[in-house]
């Protein structure tokens, strides 16, 4: 009878070791996937804070959205409608693009549909953020032209 319990104990120990290796392998695969697409780090149980907080690409910026939800919706809608961005895995829709930008900027847009409808229903200018971007780029070009002109003189 003692022999049976020893075998059972060995089996349980072997199974525990096997499962631990599989869990570590899955955690490593998850980290590689997460890091390849720039998702924020996630702590796994029994990991030290130092290991889970460090980013494998220290020169990659952690971006934060500083404008309004409506501005982000204008941007993602314009990019999607102009087909300025494509997915390496095939087709995508505006919702998927917005979700990608939400992850990129660590920002959640609540009530996207109603906010986009309100933006569409504006009386004066429907694309306020797009106009702001256009003005900012035009100002940049003018500054660079002025800088170039002043260097020539």
Structural features:
mainly alpha, 65% helix, 153 residues, 2 domains, elongated
What does this protein look like?
By secondary structure, this protein is mainly alpha-helical. It has 2 domains: 2-53; 69-138, no CATH class. Helices cover 65% and strands 0% of the residues. It has 6 helices and no strands. Helix 3 (69-81) packs across helix 5 (112-120). It is elongated. Residues 42-52 have low confidence and may be disordered.
Cα Rg: 26 Å
Total number of strands:
0
Give the tally of structural domains.
Answer: 2
Helix fraction bin: 55-70%
Percent strand equals under 5%
Low-confidence segments: 42-52
Mean pLDDT: 80
Helical element count? 6
Shape: elongated
Largest sheet: none
Structural class: mainly alpha
SSE pattern: HHHHHH
Ends: how far apart? 100 Å
Describe the structure concisely for a colleague.
The protein is mainly α. The chain is 65% helix and 0% strand.
Write the layout of secondary structure elements.
Layout: H1 2-37, H2 49-53, H3 69-81, H4 94-105, H5 112-120, H6 128-152
Helix pairs in contact: 3-4, 3-5
């Amino acid at each position: 009878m003692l022999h049976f319990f020893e075998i059972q104990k060995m089996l349980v120990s072997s199974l525990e070791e096997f499962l631990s290796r599989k869990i570590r392998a899955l955690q490593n695969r998850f980290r590689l996937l997460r890091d390849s697409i720039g998702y924020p780090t996630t702590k796994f149980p029994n990991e030290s804070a130092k290991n889970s907080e460090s980013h494998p690409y220290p020169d990659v910026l952690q971006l934060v959205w500083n404008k309004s939800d409506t501005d982000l919706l204008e941007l993602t809608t314009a990019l999607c409608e102009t087909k300025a961005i494509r997915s390496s895995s095939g087709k995508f829709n505006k919702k998927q693009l917005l979700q990608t930008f939400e992850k990129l900027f660590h920002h959640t847009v609540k009530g996207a549909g109603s906010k986009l409808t309100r933006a569409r229903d504006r009386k004066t200018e429907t694309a306020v953020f797009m106009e702001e971007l256009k003005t900012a780029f035009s100002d940049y070009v003018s500054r660079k032209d002025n800088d170039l002109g002043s260097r020539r003189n």
